[in-house]
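Please check both lines for our workbook:

___
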Amino acid sequence: MTEQGTGLTHSREWKAATYSGFPPLIVIAVLMVIIIGSIVQLASDNWPPIVAILPVLCSLGVLFVVPGFYMLQPNQGAAITLFGSYRGTDRASGLRWVLPWMIRRRISVRANNVISERIKVNDLRGNPIEMAAQVVWRVTDTAQALFDIDDYKAFVNVQIEAAVRTIGARYPYDDFTHEEVTLRGNHDQVGGELLTVLMARLAVAGISVDECGFTHLAYAQEIAGAMLRRQQAEAVVAARRTLVEGAVGMVEMALAQLSEKNVVELDDERRAAMVSNLMVVLCGERDTQPIVNAGSLYQ
């Protein structure tokens, strides 16, 4: 069956009219017995005239039946064509037989696992990154794979690369503030979109995708060092921001409790000095050394 589109013919798979190979095999065995018997009769003195033509007729029958045999393994199909016209696909495994003038093209419908080559892609922010994907795919429509695409395996490889580039350019590689969807931080979501894009691209070839995911994701070598330093700087800034926010909260709590419980009366200058000391203690990277002031705060 074909559907006419805009200048192109789209094939659709259907079941071919083929047969089990065992009945024709029995026919060949019977013909061989007749041939052997006829030859034995011809060796004797008394034989009817029809015996002379039987070996010829049976031999022609054997030559007709034998070319129609073919073998299919599990998860393997055979697309049948007659004078260039698609006549269906046979997916029954075992010994099969079809009229000998029909052409059989075997095709595997098993799962295939492909790991793409590492390619360089510019992410959403223009940073060059390296990406590679792993894809498990299989042929679901043998007619489309064989007759709508020139080389369906090469087509799969090209479409995987195109899909990886599409997804890579859609998102930034990383976002330290966790406000955006990123390639590195949202594997499930990005992998789901990669699956959707691949399914749409490979549908024209009668191929489905069982699963896919990224096997390699990193900044390109020319900016890897700079981006690593940037990530480290962003991490330090974020850590400092969290530390300062926590320290300010602790200072506010300390001053509030001191005032509430009337532990000590603090004027503005002493309050400022205490705030400064507490911030140094709470925000310092090293342990502070206590100093006992035996005199006045103003000495």
